[in-house]
Structure formats: structure tokens, C-alpha cells
């Protein structure tokens, strides 16, 4: 389907996955013409409709490339060059489209004609510029550039551009023309809109924005968790990893690569944040996130290219429980750049922790460690760079301390860590002085030397001997060798590097202890690899040599996963596959790893020779590797290796020393003799490493045998273990791109980005992925996963038959899949259709199950409610019956009490009414008698006269006054009786709350009783006196009474009786007795009423009687009523006294007058 063309013009011309055309279906497939062109019969123009994420979509866009059955899988055709004036419109780019069971094809000649009007042209400076073709003549074309400049170029140098509708697509596989300028333009377009993530098939490309972008946080995490946001993102990669781990039960890995400054560390932290958010809940995820500040402080440094460059590689393996929650983690580190501790280039810094310690240490810690400012330490001052713009080292130091607390590093251990750091800094200040003519030296006994000895806890003399002398074993003898100045400096720097390296390893060990999984291990994990990217500087040393070797190995892993293994699997499964060539770096890896004539083998061999130097190493490499196509020897110490990312020239200066990385036994013995625990642990660790099996004889005469494995050999072993671990996982690749070298936001350098894209192999990834079958599944797994979707039950058939039946039922086009011997292979997006159908079916099944279970639960709940209701009815019935029985008993008791109270009240009322009736009857009868007998002789005279017998005659006015007073007394009596009833009811309610007034009321009652007795005695005396006088006249009264038996028989008889002298004298005396009797009767009634009221209030106050009233207030009211009655009663007594005095003054009987005076005198002597 393709033909060979000029490499500069080679591209893939498939339309994007979500690009659709409108047109009539044709019955014939496209056929390849003899000229290599492809034609069709019909054509249509694409319709643009709207934008999604800043990218135009067509009217029938499928949206997501995963769910589209044709995403990124158009027909590949070769580009036709503009030669001999051939009309480019004759080239058609058809795209298969499915509508139900039909296949529709559309011609795109109009689109192609419009498309070819814009092309990319490479300027002399190497940048690409988009130009418009004005005309074409022969092999030349006239191009108009955007600034209006018109140039003439060779047509073959033009690279076709994509239409505007594809500007800013989020997946490079969607580009119609996949070429370098189109990829650069698409990334730049998205970068300018802060869309820093772009997919390149299975690879995520992340461009460092060098600023904060609003793409992170809980809102975005929730969106990607619910898959409501499908834009490329680190969150999406992490989400895919955790879902595949749970679904497939296969460990996952996220491999983050890129050169220094591309944002690998931040990308790793973002991925960890998403995994912590989804798998959090146990608290361990917070500890995992807090390992980043610690590792960055101790393992990152400022370089010329990056302010926070990782100078080590790390693999964080996060373990998950069966429920998908984080259960622990493990951190593995690779190749810490120890040389940075003692040596920094101009404008760079050593590790961050040194500057953070100097800036953020507390005064107490500063005094304890004898710390000074950073510029006073030689290790830190040699680069003349002490700070980073926008970074507060003091604040970062406090963050590191908090992180150490969270990962359970004790305060004592933290102080020991800071002491080791201060010891390293003070070691750099240790100076030496020459002591003889042979240039032998010894350390200067100054503040630096004493501070180092104090901080690591050793004897200062032992430290002096270690830095100035070396004990060498020659057979059975020990020879003491004095060190020269270069040797002493090397010994000092080796000790400093070893202390820092061991301290770093110890911290990683403590972190792993804190994050240990233990018994919670389930075997499910996601590994995040953050390792240094490919490096190429003006001067490349041993560190760049190891880093680039690691990147070669990672690139091969990348190639094998995406290219080689994919094509080999196609061949093994018998898939009809057009092989696509790709660059393999196996030759470069063989150059490094081949034995015995590989770079690493020759380096280790030269490191074993006592007289080996950097020059001899370079000569040996050139001698043995000159015929290798990936190696080129240069002058002097230089040699060049052709890496997958480009050629890198190395200088062998320092190679042997750094590869040996030897620490003499004297230094190890010094650390083991220290009183501090950390140096002792460091010495034990180094001694244990020296006992490991030796890969080769690396013992150097006069050197140390503390570390027999070379750095390169150990690193190679770590790298092979890493590759083995990654090989057992499903990898997810993130390629970080640095847009410029000045770390400026918004600046996009095409050349730099293009170089990194070539190193990452992004274009090769897209090219091969689009032309292959990236999704594959075994027959058994496919039938087991989707077999239940079949309409007909063919469960008894073999898995292959079931799989084919599934494909036929869902009308998946034959070119969209391939059936292999053991697996089914699908183009991109095909499995998404089945997954959507499966998810919808499962969702429906779950809905039915949930409905049925809900129905069962509701029935069960209804039965439970019915049983509970019956049980409650029995319980409530029993309770109500008991309450009703109690209420009935109380009701009967209340009825009994009420009957007694009402009977008492009725009796009192009856007695009162009876007494009032009697009093009223007596008063009326008296009035009638007085009216009938009082007119004689009184109305005419208008005064009081005395007859011959001395009887007193009462005037009519006096009788009227007496009658008026009688009526008034009767009305007052009725009112008092009503008040009495009210008071009696109220006082009955106060009987139970009157305890505190009981004593007082008893005393008042005694006083009142005394007053009552005195008053009663006075009344009795008055009655007796009146009775004596009345008995004297009884005989005359009896005669008058006998004559008055019939008042109505004759008026003359009545007048004769009333005119009798005895009757006239009896009338006033009877009136006086009547008034006195009524007063005495009223007094007794009032005494009884007030006594009962007081008794009731006492019972209310004491709580014997329940009543809704205030006893204190009722007592005050009763007292006021008593005072009012007493005042009224006294007034009436005085009036009666005056009347009786007048009557008594006219009587002739001296004895009676004496008795009256005596009574009234006693009455006046009585006071309430």
C-alpha cells in the first residue's frame, strides 16, 4: 500500500480518528492504480462543527479515540510529489466509516486540493515556517510566508501541513500528516494555551510550562476519576494504571523520562498525588507524599539547566490492598552523584539540604553544630551560587523536618543527620600543611578539624592520622605511608562523599521502614520510575556515561514494548502485518555490555591495574572498540558514543577514580570507632558490602579493599534488576519535554523540542501504533469477557468460535481486527465499542439485580414492619391497660375526694343560705312588725317621747335607717359569702404548700382566738345585761304578744295593742337585741371563715393539698380582707353603741345602765 519516497517528504496521510465525511456510499473499494495513486468515484467536503478543547471536530465526530471504532486507523497512502505539474487534487484520502451494517466511503479530492495549499518550509536557521503555495513550476514552487515575504523553493523540500481543523489535537495520531513540523506546531499550539499534555499513541508527552497551570487539584482528580474529563493528563495515565491493575491483576509501572529540567520530578509527584487520592484512606498515602521533600532535599541540586535537578534515580513502588487502597510503598534509588558533594561547577549548587540547613537551623541547633553561613564553607563556596530565585531555603528546611517527623524519624536521629551534614561541610574546610621535603602533609589543627571530630564523635588524633597517613598491607606486614597533598585531599573528599552517600542510603532505609507493607502485601503494585534523562554537555564525565547507559537500556525497554515485541508477536500469531522498520539501539547496548570487550568491561579491567590512568583507559578503548560502528575514538582522552538520541563525546578524566570510588580501611575503622551511632552504622554497611562476592579482581595495591565492586558494575546490576522488575509490569510511558534552556514560561525553541522528540522516539511510536493493532486479547479471555453478550447461547463452543461470533454479531469490520493463533488483535478504539456494550449490559444486569434485591428487601422489610407493628400493638395495649387501670383508680379517688369536698361545700353553702334566710326572715318580720306598729305617735311629733310608764318610743326615721342598714348588711353578707366561697376554693388548693407558715399562722391563730374569746365574753355580758332587762318586762310583753296573735283581724285591735305602753317600751329593746345578735352571729361566721381559709393555706403551703395558686399571695390577700372586715365591723359596732347609748340614757333603771356601761366599757377595751 506504500511506495518509497524521499525521506524528507515521507509522512502518513490518514485522517484523524474523529474526522468524518458526508457523501453517498459507493459499492467499490478503492483500488491502487499503476501510478501508485489512489482514486475514488465520489467526493465531499468536510463540515466543521464547533470546538472541543480548542480543537475543531467534524459533524459526526466520535469524540474519544478509545471509543471510536476507527480512531487513528485510516487507510495509509503515500504522498504524491508535485512533479511535472500533476494536480494534487487527484490524490484522494478515503476513510472507512461504519453506519450500521454498511460501509461508507467518501472521496476527499477537494479536501486534498485545499490541504496542499499550505506546506512547511525549513528556514536556514533550522526552524520550520508555514507557507502558502502560490504556484508550482516543474521542480520549484513559489511560497508566501506569513510576514509577506515570497520565496522560491524546491518542491521536494516542502513538507505538507495539516488543515486548520486539526490545529491543537490532543493526540498526535489524529494528524493527517505526521511529520516533524506538524508535531512541533501542534505541541506549540497547545503549549501556548497552557495545554501542556498531548498523547502520542500510548505515550503521554508533557511539556514543562515553567509556571503554575490550572490543571491540578481535587476538582480535576474527581473529573478523571469519574472519566468526565478525557483530555491527556498525568491523572489519566495514573487512572489507567490503577484500573488495569485491578482489572487485569497485573502490576503496573509509570516510566517518566526526559532530560534535566523537563519536569520529571514534578510529574512523578503529580502521579503520586492522584494515586494517593484514589487509593487513600489508611493514612499511609500522606507519608508516601511526604517522602518527596526529603528525597528532593538530599538528592536534588541546582544545575545550569535545572534549579531542581534530580541527581539520582528513584523507583517508588506503591502497593495496594485487594480493595484498591494503598497499603505501603518501597523506594529504590540509583547512582547518587556523590562527586557533587565535594565539587560543583560555576553557577551550580551542591545538594539543597546543605543550604537549607545553614539557612533554617534554629539558634540552638546552630550552636550545637557550630554552623555558619553557607558562603564560609569551601564545598559550597566554590561555585559562587548560594540561592535560587523564588526559593526560601529556611522554609524548605522546616518542611523537611516536618516530613522527617511524618516518616517516623526520631528527633535524636534527626539531630544525628544534621550533625553528619555539618561534619561533611566542615570536612571541606579542613586544610593541610607540608611537613617535610617529600611534600607529605598533615591536617591543620584548627576549628574545622576539631568540629569534625566532635560532630562524628571520634578522637581528633585518630582523625588526623586517617587524613594524613595510610596503612598498607604487604603480605603479613603493615606499612604506614604518609600522604602527599593530592592524596590527603582525595582521602578527605572520599570520606566526605562516603558519609553523605551512606547518610542518603540510611534515610532511604528509614523511609522504607516507615512505608513497609508487612502482612498487608497483596502483590498488586504500581511503580513510578523517575530517572535522569539523556544528558549531553560540553564536557561529559563518568556520571553522564552511566546516565546515558541507563537511558539506552530504558530506551530498549521502550522499543521492545512498543516496537519489537509488538511486531514479533504479530509474526508469532500469524497476523497479516506489513513490517515497519524502526531504529533499534541493541548495537549501542552491546558496546556497553559486551564481554570482554565492552565499555564497562574494559573500564573495570583498567580500574584493577595499579598504574592505570585516564589516558591508558582512553587508549585501551580506542584500541579494542575502533571497529564498532557506535564508537569513535578522538584525540587524547576523548571518545564518542553514538547513542539512540545522538552522539555524545566523553572525556575519561576521573573515570577510573570515580569507578573505583574506594574508601580506605583506615577511614572505615575511624567511622566504626566513633561514639555516634550513625557513623558506626555507615561503617558496618560498608564492611558488609566488602564481603559480597567479587565480580572481578578489583584489588589495587596500596588501595583499599573495602569496596570490591566497581561503581559501574554495581550500577549495571541495579539496572538489570530494574529492567527485570519493569518487564513484569504493564508500562505506561510519560515523555517530559523542556521547551527552552532558560526556564522561561511561554518560550518555545523548535530545535530543542525537536531534538528531545527524536530522542524519545515519539514520531516512531505514533507511526507504528497507527499502522498496527495496539489492542490484543487471548481467545479465552475475550470469550470469557464478552461471551455473555451473544444473542444465541453457544457456551459449549470453543473460545475461538465464541470470539468470532462476537465479532460478527457486533459488525466489526474485518480490517479492524485480526484473528491470530492464540489472540485477537484490534486496531485502536475497537475494544472500546465492546467495552461500552459490556458496561451497558452489566449496568442493565445490575439494575435488574438491584431492582429484584430491592423488591426482596422491601418484602422482607414489610414483613418485619408487620411483625413489629403486631408486637408494638400488644405491648402498647398492655401498657395502655395498665395506664387505664391506674387512671381509673385515680379517677375514682378523685371522684371520692370531689364528692366529699362538694358535700362539705354544699353543707357550708346550705348552712350559709339557711342562716341568711333566717336572718332575712327575722329582719323582714321585724320590719313588718315595726312598720305596722311604728306609725303611732312618731311621725307627727318627729321625735322621741316617753309615755307614762317610762317606755322609749322610736322615731320612723330611725326605723328607716335601721332597715337600710339591715339591707346593706344583707347585701354585704351575700358578697362576703361569695368571697368566702372563692377563698375557700383557693385556700383548698394551697393546703399542700403551707409548711413554712404553719408555725406563724398557729401563733396568729392563738392571738385571734384570744381576741375572739374576749369579744365573745363581751358579747355574752351584753346579752346577759339585756336579758335581765328583758325578763323584767317579760310579763308585759307576754300580754302584748297574746294580743298580737292575729295582726290582720282588725286594725283597731292592732292599734290598741301597739298603743299600749308595754308594747312601745318593748320595741326598742327588741331592736337592740336583734342588732347585737346579728353582730355576734356575723362575728362567729367570719371567725369560722377566716379560720378555715388560714387552715387551707397552711395545708397548701405544706404540700398536703394540690392547688394551682400562690399561698403567699393569697395569705396577703386574706390579711387585707380581714383588715377591711375588721374596720367595717368596728364601725358598725360603734354605730350600734351610739344607738344603744341613746336608748339606755332614757331608761330609768340604774342597774341596767350600769350593766350597759360595763359591757361597752369592756367592748372598748378589746382590740384586735
TrEMBL record:
ATP binds at residues 258-265. Pfam families: IQ, Myosin_head, SH3_VIII-1_N. Gene3D superfamilies: 1.10.10.820, 1.20.5.190, 1.20.58.530, 3.30.70.1590, Kinesin motor domain, Myosin VI head, motor domain, U50 subdomain. Residues 33-44 have a biased composition (Low complexity). Transmembrane segments: none annotated. Residues 1-73, 85-106, 1032-1067 are annotated as: Disordered. Residues 959-1007 form a coiled coil. The keyword Cell membrane does not apply. Residues 114-163 form the Myosin N-terminal SH3-like domain. Residues 1-13, 1034-1059 have a biased composition (Polar residues). InterPro entries: IQ_motif_EF-hand-BS, Kinesin_motor_dom_sf, MYO1-3_N_SH3, Myosin_head_motor_dom-like, MYSc_Myo8, P-loop_NTPase, SH3_Myosin. Keywords: Actin-binding, ATP-binding, Calmodulin-binding, Coiled coil, Motor protein, Myosin, Nucleotide-binding. Residues 167-839 form the Myosin motor domain. Belongs to the TRAFAC class myosin-kinesin ATPase superfamily. Myosin family. This is Myosin-1.
Amino acid at each position: 500500500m506504500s511506495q518509497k519516497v524521499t525521506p524528507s517528504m515521507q509522512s502518513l496521510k490518514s485522517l484523524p480518528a474523529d474526522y468524518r465525511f458526508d457523501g453517498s456510499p459507493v459499492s467499490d473499494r478503492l483500488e491502487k492504480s499503476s501510478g501508485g495513486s489512489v482514486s475514488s468515484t465520489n467526493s465531499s467536503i468536510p463540515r466543521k462543527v464547533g470546538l472541543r478543547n480548542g480543537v475543531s471536530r467534524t459533524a459526526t465526530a466520535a469524540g474519544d479515540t478509545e471509543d471510536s471504532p476507527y480512531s487513528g486507523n485510516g487507510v495509509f497512502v503515500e504522498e504524491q510529489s508535485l512533479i511535472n505539474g500533476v494536480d494534487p487534487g487527484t490524490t484522494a484520502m478515503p476513510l472507512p466509516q461504519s453506519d450500521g451494517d454498511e460501509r461508507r466511503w467518501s472521496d476527499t479530492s477537494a479536501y486534498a486540493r485545499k490541504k496542499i495549499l499550505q506546506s512547511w518550509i525549513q528556514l536556514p536557521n533550522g526552524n520550520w515556517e508555514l507557507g502558502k503555495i502560490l504556484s508550482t513550476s516543474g521542480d520549484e514552487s513559489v511560497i508566501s510566508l506569513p510576514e509577506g515575504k515570497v520565496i522560491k523553493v524546491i518542491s521536494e523540500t516542502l513538507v505538507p501541513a495539516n488543515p486548520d481543523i486539526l490545529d491543537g489535537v490532543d493526540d498526535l495520531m489524529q494528524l493527517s500528516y505526521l511529520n516533524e513540523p506538524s508535531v512541533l506546531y501542534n505541541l506549540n499550539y497547545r503549549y501556548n494555551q497552557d495545554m501542556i499534555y498531548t498523547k502520542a499513541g500510548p505515550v503521554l508527552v508533557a511539556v514543562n510550562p515553567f509556571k503554575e497551570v490550572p490543571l491540578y487539584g481535587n476538582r480535576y482528580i474527581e473529573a478523571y476519576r469519574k472519566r468526565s474529563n478525557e483530555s491527556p493528563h498525568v491523572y489519566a495515565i495514573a487512572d489507567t494504571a490503577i484500573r488495569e491493575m485491578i482489572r487485569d491483576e497485573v502490576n503496573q509501572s509509570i516510566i517518566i523520562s526526559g532530560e534535566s529540567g523537563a519536569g520529571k520530578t514534578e510529574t512523578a509527584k503529580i502521579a503520586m498525588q492522584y494515586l494517593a487520592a484514589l487509593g487513600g484512606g489508611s493514612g499511609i498515602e500522606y507519608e508516601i507524599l511526604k517522602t518527596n521533600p526529603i528525597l528532593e532535599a538530599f538528592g536534588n541540586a541546582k544545575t545550569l539547566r535545572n534549579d531542581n535537578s534530580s541527581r539520582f534515580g528513584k523507583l517508588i513502588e506503591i502497593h495496594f490492598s485487594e480493595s484498591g487502597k494503598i497499603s505501603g510503598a518501597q523506594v529504590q534509588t540509583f547512582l547518587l552523584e556523590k562527586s557533587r558533594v565535594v565539587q560543583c561547577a560555576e553557577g551550580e549548587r551542591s545538594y539543597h539540604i546543605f543550604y537549607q540547613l545553614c539557612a533554617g537551623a534554629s539558634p540552638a541547633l546552630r550552636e550545637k553544630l557550630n554552623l555558619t553561613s553557607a558562603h564560609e564553607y569551601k564545598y559550597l563556596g566554590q561555585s559562587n551560587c548560594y540561592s535560587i530565585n523564588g526559593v526560601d531555603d529556611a522554609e524548605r528546611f522546616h518542611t523537611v523536618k516536618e516530613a522527617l517527623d511524618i516518616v517516623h524519624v526520631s528527633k535524636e536521629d534527626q539531630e544525628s543527620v544534621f550533625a553528619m551534614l555539618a561534619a561533611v561541610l566542615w570536612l571541606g574546610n579542613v586544610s593541610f600543611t607540608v611537613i617535610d621535603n617529600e611534600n607529605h602533609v598533615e591536617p591543620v589543627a584548627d576549628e574545622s578539624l576539631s568540629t569534625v571530630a566532635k560532630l562524628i564523635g571520634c578522637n581528633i588524633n585518630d582523625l588526623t592520622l586517617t587524613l594524613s597517613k595510610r596503612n598498607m598491607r604487604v603480605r603479613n606486614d603493615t606499612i604506614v605511608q604518609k600522604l602527599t597533598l593530592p592524596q590527603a585531599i582525595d582521602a578527605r573528599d572520599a570520606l566526605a562523599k562516603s558519609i553523605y552517600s551512606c547518610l542518603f542510603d540510611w534515610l532511604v532505609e528509614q523511609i522504607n521502614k516507615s512505608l513497609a507493607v508487612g502482612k498487608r502485601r497483596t502483590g498488586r503494585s504500581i511503580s513510578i520510575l523517575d530517572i535522569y534523562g539523556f544528558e549531553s554537555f560540553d564536557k561529559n564525565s563518568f556520571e553522564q556515561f552511566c546516565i546515558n547507559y541507563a537511558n539506552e537500556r530504558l530506551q530498549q525497554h521502550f522499543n521492545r514494548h512498543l516496537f519489537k515485541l509488538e511486531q514479533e508477536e504479530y509474526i508469532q500469531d500469524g497476523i497479516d502485518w506489513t513490517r515497519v522498520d524502526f531504529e533499534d539501539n541493541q548495537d549501542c547496548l552491546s558496546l556497553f555490555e559486551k564481554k570482554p570487550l565492552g565499555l564497562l568491561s574494559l573500564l573495570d579491567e583498567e580500574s584493577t591495574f595499579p598504574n592505570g590512568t585516564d589516558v591508558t583507559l582512553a587508549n585501551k578503548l580506542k584500541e579494542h572498540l575502533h571497529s564498532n560502528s557506535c564508537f569513535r575514538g578522538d584525540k587524547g582522552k576523548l571518545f564518542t558514543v553514538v547513542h539512540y538520541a545522538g552522539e555524545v563525546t566523553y572525556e575519561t578524566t576521573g573515570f577510573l577514580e570515580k569507578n573505583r570510588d574506594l574508601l580506605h580501611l583506615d577511614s572505615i575503622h575511624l567511622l566504626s570507632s566513633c561514639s555516634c551511632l550513625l557513623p558506626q552504622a555507615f561503617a558496618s554497611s560498608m564492611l558488609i558490602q566488602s564481603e559480597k562476592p567479587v565480580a572481578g579482581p578489583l584489588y589495587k595495591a596500596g588501595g583499599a579493599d573495602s569496596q570490591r565492586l566497581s561503581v559501574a558494575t554495581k550500577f549495571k546490576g541495579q539496572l538489570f534488576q530494574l529492567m527485570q522488575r519493569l518487564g513484569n509490569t504493564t508500562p505506561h510511558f510519560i515523555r517530559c519535554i523542556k521547551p527552552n534552556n532558560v526556564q522561561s514560561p511561554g518560550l518555545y525553541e523548535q530545535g530543542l523540542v525537536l531534538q528531545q522528540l527524536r530522542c524519545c522516539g515519539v514520531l516512531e511510536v505514533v507511526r507504528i501504533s497507527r499502522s498496527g493493532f495496539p489492542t490484543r486479547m487471548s481467545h479465552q479471555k475475550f470469550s470469557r469477557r464478552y461471551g455473555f453478550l451473544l444473542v444465541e447461547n453457544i457456551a459449549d463452543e470453543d473460545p475461538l468460535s465464541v470470539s468470532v461470533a462476537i465479532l460478527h454479531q457486533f459488525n466489526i469490520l474485518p480490517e479492524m481486527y485480526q484473528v491470530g493463533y492464540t489472540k485477537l488483535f484490534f486496531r485502536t478504539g475497537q475494544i472500546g465499542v465492546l467495552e461500552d456494550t459490556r458496561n451497558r449490559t452489566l449496568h442493565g444486569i445490575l439494575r435488574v439485580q438491584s431492582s429484584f434485591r430491592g423488591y426482596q428487601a422491601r418484602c422482607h422489610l414489610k414483613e418485619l414492619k408487620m411483625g413489629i407493628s403486631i408486637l408494638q400493638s400488644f405491648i402498647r395495649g398492655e401498657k395502655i391497660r395498665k395506664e387505664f387501670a391506674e387512671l381509673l383508680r385515680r379517677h375514682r379517688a378523685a371522684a371520692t375526694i370531689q364528692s366529699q369536698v362538694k358535700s362539705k361545700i354544699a353543707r357550708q353553702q346550705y348552712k350559709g343560705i339557711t342562716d341568711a334566710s333566717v336572718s332575712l326572715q327575722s329582719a323582714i318580720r321585724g320590719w313588718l312588725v315595726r312598720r305596722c306598729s311604728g306609725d303611732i305617735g312618731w311621725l307627727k311629733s318627729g321625735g322621741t317621747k316617753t309615755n307614762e310608764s317610762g317606755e322609749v318610743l322610736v322615731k320612723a326615721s330611725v326605723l328607716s335607717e335601721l332597715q337600710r342598714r339591715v339591707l346593706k348588711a344583707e347585701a354585704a353578707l351575700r358578697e362576703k359569702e361569695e368571697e368566702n366561697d372563692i377563698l375557700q376554693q383557693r385556700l383548698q388548693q394551697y393546703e399542700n404548700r403551707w409548711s413554712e407558715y404553719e408555725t406563724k399562722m398557729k401563733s396568729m391563730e392563738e392571738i385571734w382566738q384570744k381576741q375572739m374569746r374576749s369579744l365573745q365574753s363581751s358579747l355574752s355580758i351584753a346579752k346577759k345585761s339585756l336579758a335581765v332587762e328583758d325578763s323584767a318586762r317579760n310579763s308585759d310583753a307576754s300580754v302584748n304578744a297574746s294580743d298580737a296573735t292575729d295582726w290582720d283581724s282588725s286594725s283597731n285591735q292592732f292599734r290598741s295593742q301597739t298603743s299600749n305602753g308595754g308594747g312601745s317600751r318593748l320595741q326598742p329593746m327588741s331592736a337592740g337585741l336583734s342588732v347585737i345578735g346579728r353582730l355576734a352571729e356575723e362575728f362567729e361566721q367570719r371567725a369560722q371563715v377566716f379560720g378555715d381559709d388560714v387552715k387551707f393555706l397552711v395545708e397548701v403551703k405544706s404540700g398536703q393539698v394540690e392547688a394551682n395558686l400562690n399561698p403567699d399571695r393569697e395569705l396577703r390577700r386574706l390579711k387585707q380582707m380581714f383588715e377591711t372586715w375588721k374596720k367595717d365591723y368596728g364601725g358598725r359596732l360603734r354605730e350600734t353603741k351610739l344607738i344603744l347609748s341613746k336608748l339606755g340614757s332614757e331608761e330609768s333603771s340604774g342597774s341596767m345602765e350600769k350593766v350597759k356601761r360595763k359591757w361597752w366599757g369592756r367592748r372598748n377595751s378589746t382590740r384586735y
